[in-house]
Q: What sequence folds into this?
């Protein structure tokens, strides 16, 4: 779609059904990539911020497949210093786990937490998170969608 000088002050509106039909699939191999930097790029694709018709109240994002999540890396002393907390609301039930323990136990959870907290805290967050596919190792399960590489 081309814009002319008179179109600059008009908002580009695309129907929600057309946005859902035009969702793209992206694939990335997380081997050796840094956790936070990868999470930023994944969150942008899930939210649809790379699209020209992005709006914060509509879900225009894409699907993202992350392979080899167990081979992700972190920098500095985060393995020991970064702590994740969960609290049920009952007295004495504050649980904590370090990033190193979480990566050993379930490496996909660390990336899922990072991406989730980078998305907007609204009703669209869970729908966006459902489009994130995290895989330990490699797979051909989603190849029929012809995913594009996230990084070129």
A:
């Amino acid at each position: 779609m081309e814009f002319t000088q008179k179109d600059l002050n008009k908002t580009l509106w695309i129907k929600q059904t057309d946005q859902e039909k035009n969702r793209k699939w992206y694939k990335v191999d997380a081997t050796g990539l840094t956790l936070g930097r990868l999470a930023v790029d994944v969150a942008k694709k899930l939210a649809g911020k790379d699209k020209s018709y992005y709006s914060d109240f509509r879900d225009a994002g894409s699907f993202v497949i992350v392979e080899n999540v167990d081979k992700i890396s972190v920098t500095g002393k985060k393995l020991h210093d970064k702590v994740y907390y969960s609290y049920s609301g009952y007295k004495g039930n504050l649980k904590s786990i370090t990033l190193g323990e979480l990566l050993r136990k379930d490496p996909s959870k660390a990336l899922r937490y990072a991406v989730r907290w980078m998305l907007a805290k609204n009703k669209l967050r869970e729908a966006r998170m459902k489009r994130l596919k995290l895989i330990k190792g490699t797979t051909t399960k989603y190849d029929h969608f012809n995913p594009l590489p996230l990084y070129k």
